[in-house]
TrEMBL record:
PROSITE patterns: NUDIX, NUDIX_BOX. It comes from Oryzihumus leptocrescens. Keywords: Hydrolase, Magnesium. The keyword Hydrolase applies. Its cofactor is Mg(2+). PANTHER family: GDP-MANNOSE MANNOSYL HYDROLASE. Gene3D superfamilies: Nucleoside Triphosphate Pyrophosphohydrolase. It comes from the Bacteria. Belongs to the Nudix hydrolase family. One of its GO terms (molecular function) is hydrolase activity. Residues 20-160 form the Nudix hydrolase domain. Pfam families: NUDIX. This is ADP-ribose pyrophosphatase YjhB (NUDIX family).
Length: 179
């Protein structure tokens, strides 16, 4: 997951690799055809290894996770969501991964949201995000296993199914209350 926070707690390890501890949010944003908006990116220090990952990023000090999620969606796509449009949290977990020469220890919370398809354009990318982003595009949420490259998180297809199931359980057959 390629977006370390600038203000995160950091400590150097014995071998000289900086360790960044941070809280983060991820957003599974679905369109009307159950496609999920994803970022195709790379580690700038290892650009030949590309992957897809969900929208999201670091939680700023004093910010709650819903506020962080809607801010990250806007920064990465230009879409303005209201916190009440988020579904979840769907899941919480901890991941550890290398990025830009650092070891990231990330506690993350996943939310979902539904929108009509739009052309995503970053509204407030930082320099590192510009260097690590190849494109932002919609991938078929129910066929993520067929994507040739790695998709993060590995359980994303489960989150898509959870969102679709929640919608079916809370919507009348003719309702389009998620759109």
């Amino acid at each position: 997951m390629p977006t370390p926070a600038d203000d995160a707690d950091t400590a150097d390890t014995d071998v000289g690799v900086e360790v960044v501890h941070r809280r983060a949010v991820r957003v599974v944003l679905l369109d009307e055809r159950d496609h999920v908006l994803m970022i195709h990116g790379c580690d700038p220090r290892n650009p030949e290894r590309t992957y897809w990952y969900s929208l999201g990023g670091g939680v700023e000090e004093g910010e709650d996770t819903r506020e962080a999620a809607v801010r990250e969606v806007w920064e990465e796509t230009g879409l303005r969501l209201a916190p009440e449009e988020l579904v979840g949290p769907l899941r919480e977990d901890v991941v550890v991964f290398p990025f830009d020469g650092r070891q990231i220890h990330q506690e993350q919370v996943f939310f979902g949201a539904r929108t009509t398809r739009f052309e995503a354009a970053p509204a407030a990318f930082e320099e590192l995000e510009e260097l690590s982003t190849i494109t932002i595009d919609w991938l078929p949420g129910r066929a993520l296993g067929q994507v040739a490259e790695t998709v993060f998180p590995e359980f994303l297809a489960e989150l898509v199914e959870d969102l679709v199931a929640r919608e079916a359980a809370t919507s009348a057959p003719t309702s389009q209350n998620w759109l």
